[in-house]
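Subject: for your reference before the review

Hello V.,

The reviewers asked for a structural picture of the protein, and I figured it would be easier to keep everything in one thread rather than splitting it across files. Below is the amino acid sequence we used in the manuscript, unchanged from the supplementary table.
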Amino acid sequence: MQVTRYLHTAILVSDLERSERFYSEILGLPKVDRSMKFPGIWYQIGEFQLHLIQLEGTEEALDNPEKWGRNRHIAFAVRDLSDIRQALMDAGYPVQASASGRAALFVRDPDGNVVELSGT
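And here is what came back from the structure prediction:
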């Protein structure tokens, strides 16, 4: 057996509308059609997909609350890190700079899932 390609990551969210505002409007991810019977939203980022699956009452706990990047997280490259930082802060999302000194920041989505955003 050999793994040939990375397809997607699925994360749990409790409120699709709230999560859609975060992922679609603030991060600007493009949605794609899906044909599943359970509530969710799919996004396409290059060859990779992000699947949001609704599960009410879910909240991601931080194993390391001091350094968000040392928790389970997904990571995206962004063109302008300062623009996305400002958009997140304007929308009321706290951000945490990478402790390594790299051009990256971490944010938690409405359900507490950690998202890394790295400058390109």
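For the response letter, the relevant points are probably these. DSSP finds two helices and eight strands in the chain. Helices lie at 16-26, 81-90.

Happy to draft the paragraph if you're swamped.

O.
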